[in-house]
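Convert to structure. Protein one:
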Amino acid sequence: SKVEFILYNDTDGYFVTAELNESEGIYYVTGHVSGRDDATRFTPTADGSLFVKGLEDDMYIATEIQTSNGYTLLRDD
């Protein structure tokens, strides 16, 4: 629950915003922003899955921005 990612649409050049439906454990895209600080911070479910519905058929970059104590951030996106 302490691991967080942001999603960047590399095709169109924007960060993804989404809302989590907690009962389903699924994020639904609500829009996009140009600034990294305004992007949604995605957190995987307890089993490590991350489901995002509503993404365009483009190329995305997932960047780990926070991790649990005792671990290091991923070096590569």
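Protein two, convert as well:
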Amino acid sequence: MLIPEIVFLNPPELTKKLRNFYYSSFNSETLETILGFIEQNMNASKTSKALYMHRNTLNYRLDNFINKTEIDVRTFKGALAIYLLFKR
């Protein structure tokens, strides 16, 4: 997974292209769900309550993101990579 390295090296063009790729691949609700999940310390129950969504919906969006990107945001490494990409 090269996303952490890209984010830390901070080449602006590459980081921007990578963000644009994710914005074009997923709708804003999915990305908000992923970032909300990370911000709630990867706790599905807290995330479901904070985002006012059913836990099954949350799990579906997480699974969909993981399957399409092969980045498991349920792990620290995957969550850190995505969080730094969008929040830095």
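Residues 55-69 form the longest helix (15 residues). The chain has a mean pLDDT of 88.
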